[in-house]
Amino acid sequence: MGKEIVDIRREEIINACEKLYENNNFKDITIKNIGEETTFSRTSIYNYYQTKEEIFLALFQREYERWVEELEEVYNQNSKMTKEMFADKLAHTIEKRKNLLKLLSMNMYDMEENSRAEALVEFKEAYGTAIKTVRKCLDKYFDDMTEEEKKDFIFSFFPFMYGIYPYTFVTDKQKEAMKKAKVPFEYLTIYEITYKGILKLLS
Predict the structure, then answer these.
(1) Are 193 and 164 spatial neighbours (Cβ–Cβ below 8 Å)?
(2) pTM exceeding the 0.85 threshold for the entire prediction
(3) Mean pLDDT by 10 residues, the chain (203 residues)
(4) What is the model's pLDDT at position 1?
(5) Could you say which of 15, 131, 132, 197 is the most buried, measured as most Cβ atoms within 10 Å of its Cβ?
(6) Which CATH number fits domain 54-202: 3.40.50.300, 1.10.357.10, 3.50.50.60, 2.30.30.140?
């Protein structure tokens, strides 16, 4: 089978996974479900991905790659930016990546543990590129930041992203539980919480 066909089928599998993930959780989606959304047999999926986790890891990788594309646009289209402008632009790129945030809120250990080493390396390369691209933006827009401050931003912002989805997508059951437990909660959008977080890290 030629590389072009392999790539097309891999993309179709990832698209099927993405479609199902819009309205379902990881635990509720099976390889059978994913196969039903493709144009070829379910058993054929195993020619491309060995586990459900590998398919989700490939979706995760694509989310990072698409985010990097948007970050590169920000980098190329803006010669100078204030902290507020940068926070706004970066927050808007995150706002568009709901699936990336949803995936980040999952148990990464299990997903990575049940994927082949080569798939994990490809994912880590995409993740690493995202880090490098954000760092490149900091280098361009903030000459006054020290090396240590830039490192602190990177190693605070990326873990911060893990909590954005569960904080901004709260179920009615969770809301009711917090109300009964008298837990104060202020609803914020992805953009709002990300923008505020970035400004705090830049200050």
Answers:
(1) yes
(2) yes
(3) 87 97 94 92 90 96 98 98 98 97 92 94 98 98 97 98 94 92 92 98 95
(4) 65
(5) 197
(6) 1.10.357.10
Q: What is the largest CA-CA distance in the chain?
A: 59
Cα–Cα distance for residue pair 59/85, rounded to 1 Å: 30
* pLDDT score at 110: 86
Residue whose pair of structure tokens reads 């049940």 in the numeric block: 114
Whether residue 68 contacts residue 129, with contact meaning beta carbons closer than 8 Å, is answered with yes
Q: Per CATH, is 1-48 categorized as 1.10.10?
A: yes
pLDDT score, position 186: 86
User: Domain boundaries in the chain?
Assistant: 1-48, 54-202
Sign of CA dihedral 86, 88, 90, 91: positive
Q: With beta carbons less than 8 A apart as the criterion, state whether 190 and 94 touch.
A: yes
